[in-house]
Each structure stands twice: as C-alpha cells, then as structure tokens.
Design goal:
single chain, about 100 residues, alpha+beta, two-stranded antiparallel ribbon, disordered C terminus
C-alpha cells in the first residue's frame, strides 16, 4: 500500500473508511494526521484499490486492522520484510543515506 500511494506508515495504519472514496479512486489524509500539517489528496491506482477492497468487513472504522485494532508500530517489522521482498522482486535496492545500496 505504501509503495502504491507514497503514504507514511502512520497514515496507512490509521486510515479510516471515511477517508476513502473507491468510486473516485482517491483517499485523503487530514491536516492533523499529516507530518506537514497540510491535507494530502491521494490518488489510488488499481493495486491500492485492490488492497483496500480486500479489507471490507474487517472493521467498521479503520481500513487496516490487526486483531480488531488499527495496526501498530509493532507490526512494522512485518511491513519492512514485505517491502524488502517487493524491492527484490522489482530489482531495486534499499536507498541508504550515503550510498545507493
């Protein structure tokens, strides 16, 4: 989801159904949820829409949940492993601060 939207982990983990419009294929982050304190409009590509649609029925308020609650930072290691796997499949390397790989 992060790869397809460019959103930060916190924005994704706290995304609410009221912030998603699948008909218009967009989502939005409220200013108080954004790092820069400005609203963020997010276009949703086919992959992001598919991921969101698979979440239907899991929680009435939050899009992404784990055991009935919004995902927490403790789930971050699983997310990092998925990102590393996706980078490998795409032939990309992790960008380090001072080097390319």
């Amino acid at each position: 989801m992060a790869f397809n939207t460019g959103l930060r982990w916190r924005n994704i983990s706290l995304l609410e159904w009221s912030q998603v419009d699948l008909v218009r294929r967009c989502a939005w982050i409220h200013p108080d949820q954004a790092k820069g304190k400005k609203p963020i409009g997010v276009p949703l590509n086919e992959a992001a829409v598919s991921v969101i649609q698979r979440q239907f029925g899991r929680h009435e308020r939050f899009v992404f949940v784990n055991n009935g609650a919004p995902r927490k930072k403790s789930d971050f290691s699983q997310w990092r492993r998925a990102c590393a796997k996706a980078r490998g499949q795409a032939g990309m390397c992790r960008m380090a601060r001072r080097s390319m790989c």
